[in-house]
Each structure stands twice: as C-alpha cells, then as structure tokens.
Design brief:
With about 220 residues, the protein is of the alpha+beta class. The protein is built from 4 helices and 8 strands, in the order αβαβββββββαα.
C-alpha cells in the first residue's frame, strides 16, 4: 500500500485535468527508476550502461507472413546504448504505465539460418551473412496494473520508422538462388522481425538503465 500511495502522491503533484500524468522528465533516469522501484520488486542497483556492441549466441524469430523461421547465430547488436526515453506517462483511469524509447542507428550482424516451412513437407534451410542498420526503431511498452507492475510479461510494440541499410552475402549457391531481390514486401518482413526483437531490446534497456526485473 505504501508504494501505491507514494506513486499517487508523486504523480498527483503533476497531474492536471487530464488522466495522463507525466511524473518525470524523460532525461531524469533516477526519477523513472524510483517510480519503477516503488511499484515493483525490481532491483534499482543497475549497471547503468549497455556495451556499444554485445553478442547473443542464438536468437530465433518467426515471420508468419513468409512461412519462415530465422535463427541468428552470434548476433551482434550495436548502438543499443544510444537509445533514450521518448515517452513516459501514467494513465490514472486505466492504471497503465507507458514507457517508450527511441533507438537511432540500431545495428545487427549475424550468420542467419532461414527455415522455410511448407505443408506436408520437410523444412528447407538456407544460410547467409546479414548486416543491417536501422535509422530509427521506436519501442513502446504498456505496463498494466502499474501500481504492482510486471515488466517481464508486458507487451512491447516496435515501430520500424524507416527501412534498414543492409548487406546480405549468401553462404552457398542454393541460398543465392533462393533469396529474392524484390524488396516490395520488405516493410512487412521488418515489422514481423521486430515483433520478435522488441521485447529483448526493451527489457535489456530497462534492466540495464532503470531497474532490474531479472528477466530477459
């Protein structure tokens, strides 16, 4: 109950006639951290940084529109440390906390395995090197029941504001013949790609800079 009262007292001082309350300046990370700490069991003793580049041994995502699964091996993610909070508010009517971060020039590099699925058939696999840089990725998380928040189960929406600059090198002739040079559906592919990536990126940011919830 104390955490609830403290949260409401902090937000009430900045609340106007609207149900939308912004208790902290976006750049005031200690204030944001305190809001999270008071209303959850998270650990505020975070490292306060993300490496310029880090590696995930295996990352899997699915693109249902293309009947495919992608496996990134030794996925290198760069410029995640350049992300910053672009929205942070609490809705007093719905008890939902919204946090958004903007990530300029996010970079991804991996050896990628593509599994093509078909009905009544074995999957077909392809392999290629991928490197892509995205001008701006915007991630938005809605945390329901905000006075007892559970970031680990919250949904993160990814807005791919612009298509990436990318490089692809097939690892064999079969893959070279399969990969399409038609980029008409690239926007759909990228939206599905970040449907799978968004949660990891947002949780990495929150657990590193704001408050550690112990989930990945």
């Amino acid at each position: 109950m104390l955490a609830i009262l403290l949260f409401l007292s902090i937000t009430a001082c900045l609340a106007g006639p609207s149900s939308i309350v912004r208790p902290c300046k976006f750049s005031n990370t200690p204030c944001v951290r305190e809001i999270f700490r008071l209303n959850s069991g998270c650990n505020p003793n975070v490292r306060g940084s993300i490496p310029t580049q880090y590696t995930i041994p295996t990352f899997v995502f699915h693109t249902p529109y293309f009947n495919s699964t992608y496996i990134d091996r030794n996925l290198k993610i760069g410029n995640h440390n350049k992300c910053y909070i672009s929205e942070f508010f609490y809705n007093t009517k719905t008890d939902v906390l919204v946090i958004a971060i903007d990530c300029p020039f996010l970079a991804f590099e991996s050896t990628r395995i593509l599994l093509q699925h078909r009905s009544l058939a074995e999957d077909t696999s392809f392999e290629y090197y991928y490197k892509g840089t995205y001008p701006l990725i915007r991630l938005t998380m809605n945390i329901r029941n905000a006075v007892n928040m559970d970031v680990c189960s919250a949904y993160t929406f990814a807005d791919v504001t612009a298509l990436p600059i990318f490089q692809i090198n097939p690892n064999d002739p079969k893959t070279a013949n399969f990969l399409s040079r038609d980029l008409t559906l690239l926007n759909i592919f990228e939206r599905e790609t970040f449907y799978g990536r968004a949660r990891q990126l947002m949780l990495k940011y929150i657990n590193s800079y704001i408050c550690d919830f112990g989930c990945k």
